[in-house]
Amino acid sequence: MLILAFESSCDETAVAVVRDGRTVLSDAILSQADMHAIYGGVVPEIASRKHIEGIAALTDQALKEAGVTREDIDAVAVTCGPGLIGALLVGVNFAKSVAYALGKPLIPVHHLRGHIAANYIAFPELEPPFLALCISGGNSMLVNVQGYTEMNIVGATRDDAAGECFDKVARVLGLPYPGGKPMEELARGGDDCAYVLPRSHVADSDLDMSFSGLKTAVVNLVHNAAQKGEPLDRPGLAASFAAAVSDELVPRAILAAKRYGHHTVVAAGGVAANSRIRSDLERACRENGLRLFLPPLKLCGDNGAMIGCQAYYESRCLHYADMSLNAYANLEI
Ligand code: AMP
Ligand code: MG
Q1: What is the CA(146)–ligand 1 centre distance, in A?
Q2: What is the pTM of this model?
Q3: What pLDDT does residue 169 have?
Q4: Would you say residue 324 lies in a domain?
Q5: What pLDDT score was predicted for residue 104?
Q6: Which parts of the chain have pLDDT scores under 70?
Q7: For the segment 147-202, what is each residue's pLDDT rounded down to a tens digit?
Q8: Is the domain of 106 the same as that of 132?
């Protein structure tokens, strides 16, 4: 089954052609990050406009790179949420018109299900059940994945997402948007004990997380140092911050895997590219006898291939949509 998949939930326009869920024939991505970097974060209106400008040519590129024609396509898939509503609407409407014009079925895909599915592309042997740690710019959650299309959230952030926290802290340190990668580079060689940063405790749930206290602590620390004219150990602060984020995520992922009887842990989302989080996950899984799957860096961020992959499994359960499909800023997994 050949699926043409669209992703436009944030600041990347992506179109991919995927065969039978696991074979990626093309994965074309048009990033707008440079455009948003001028403003220090994603500007929703600009994101929507850039998706409109890019999506048609990117579709031609994806078909060409895959070596197929539109007539070869068996189904059209699209991210329908969660994400920026204007951005999502561009992908949904474009996908609907392509499906209508070609007379092919339309498959709606949940963005985070897509992030999890990125691992199926990288690891042919991976199958549910497993515990997924989904950490991106807009979400941080623990997902109990029982089947390709059966999953539920067992822990989540009560406030900011991990990626959002990386981006805010990077901004206060004068680093460009998106801040995750520059923060990682700054942390290299830094002492992760240079600063004492808070670890959260969510009173009524040991699997829920919180990042706003950590974010505020770092912002206050930087501002206080500036006001007093004190020097800042920037690499030390970046390393201490990455350690604090990792401490928030990794022990909870292990706890959730054990509580729900999983032997496998899977990481997903843009923040899963972080080397501190990856190495902490590797160590913790090894110590606890858990199998770990870490997606390759290029499959951590938003892409169309992951949507085409998940769409295949949705189609096997006949999860199709008609022309009334809408986009949703918030959407249950
Ligand atoms: P996504 O929302 O899945 O597209 O992921 C984007 C988020 O991942 C942004 O908040 C980035 O700052 C963050 N990110 C990307 N690379 C890294 C990294 N190496 N370390 C931490 N965060 C990262
Ligand atoms: Mg994403």
Answers
A1: 26
A2: 0.96
A3: 97
A4: no
A5: 98
A6: none
A7: 999 999 999 999 999 999 999 999 999 999 999 999 999 999 999 999 999 999 99
A8: no
Q: Is the CB of 82 under 6 A from ligand 1?
A: no
Helix, strand or coil, per DSSP, at residue 136: coil
Ligand with smallest separation from the Cα of 88: 2
Which residue among 250, 271, 276, 294 has the greatest number of ligand 1 atoms within 8 angstroms of its CB, and so is best to mutate?
A: 271
158: left (phi over 0), alpha (psi -120 to 50) or beta: alpha
Ligand 2 mean position, distance from CA 7 (Å): 9
* Same domain for 50 and 132: no
Nearest protein Cα to ligand 1, atom 22 = 180
Q: Are residues 63 and 188 in the same domain?
A: no
Kindly state whether residues 77 and 140 are assigned to the same domain.
no
What is the extent of the structural domain holding 133? 128-299
Same structural domain, 148 and 74: no
Structure tokens at 147: 């089947």
- For the stretch 278-302, pLDDT in tens is 999 999 999 999 999 999 999 999 9
For every residue of 80-107, DSSP letters joined together read EESS-HHHHHHHHHHHHHHHHHHT--EE
Does 65 map to a domain?
yes
Closest-lying ligand 1 atom to the alpha carbon of residue 178: 12
For residue 261, the CA-to-ligand 1 centroid distance in Å is 29
Closest ligand (CA of 135): 1
Q: Number of structural domains, the chain?
A: 2
Structure tokens at 109: 């895909």
For position 252, which CATH number holds?
3.30.420.40
Residue 328 located in a structural domain: no
**Is the distance from CB of 83 to CB of 161 less than 8 angstroms?**
no
In percent, the amount of the chain with pLDDT more than 90 equals 95
Distance 165 CA to ligand 1 centre (A): 10
Q: Which ligand is nearest to the CA of 301?
A: 1
Residues 264 and 133 in one domain: yes
CA distances from 198 to 45, 75, 149, 217 (A): 35, 48, 36, 7
The closest residue, in CA terms, to atom 8 on ligand 1 is 270
